[in-house]
Amino acid sequence: xxxxxxxxxxxxxxxxxxxxxxxxxxxxxxxxxxxxxxxxxxxxxxxxxxxxxxxxxxxxxxxxxxxxxxxxxxxxxxxxxxxxxxxxxxxxxxxxxxxxxxxxxxxxxxxxxxxxxxxxxxxxxxxxxxxxxxxxxxxxxxxxxxxxxxxxxxxxxxxxxxxxxxxxxxxxxxxxxxxxxxxxxxxxxxxxxxxxxxxxxxxxxxxxxxxxxxxxxxxxxxxxxxxxxxxxxxxxxxxxxxxxxxxxxxxxxxxxxxxxxxxxxxxxxxxxxxxxxxxxxxxxxxxxxxxxxxxxxxxxxxxxxxxxxxxxxxxxxxxxxx
Length: 322
Fold this sequence. Notes:
Helix content is 27%, strand content 18%. By secondary structure, it is an alpha+beta fold.
């Protein structure tokens, strides 16, 4: 394959979930390891998330983002102690961006009964929609992809020669936020405005569902010095590693820049489930490392200027090294 023909590998996870032999399972672990070492990204089929649950999720997103703007703004994540709820278009902008993202989004996470650690754990906020139209299908999808994220973490650990038992060291009560995203059609965006500007994911595993047939995701290829367009296939996920995994693995797994430009003539939907680890977890691969930043500290370090972290919350988790 020439450098101009680079494509993200498509890995069949069924050989790991329901292997016909130990060799088949080991082969999947090796494929994931190689993809994350080379690209930091891969595509995934045979993942076990039923297609109808994916379709119902996308249907629910259409219902949510079709609500009147004033109703969505009542659910603003800026008014929620757990930073759950609605993010309007233009509210997200990273250092160095020329203009804010055009996308709008909605966040949920673990469903905990009370707010803890100033919002790292707590209840979700749900729109005033019939449960069968939003909450039920969204929650079913969340549970499915949360389990998938955990499975991918197990594979990544085994790819580095560790036992899956190590999950107990950092994933007793993992932070697993989910971000549902709506991109406006190109005609509704400003010249040069991205759906999501170029960035690296901060933390652990990202499991991304793209609306089939509507492209937008691009991944940076360092060797080639160019952006790679990632196709959006039905029943195929895109998975990538964040900065925390790269650092915890000593750079063996890559965290790679990516961005979104809606290539469709119409609106576009996607959904990302992020599987990080416990808020107070430190690097389980190197417990003797002098760098003792926790998942919570790393999250605050990355997002404190984009999200409304309260001072008491920062004090509870502490601050990462500069």
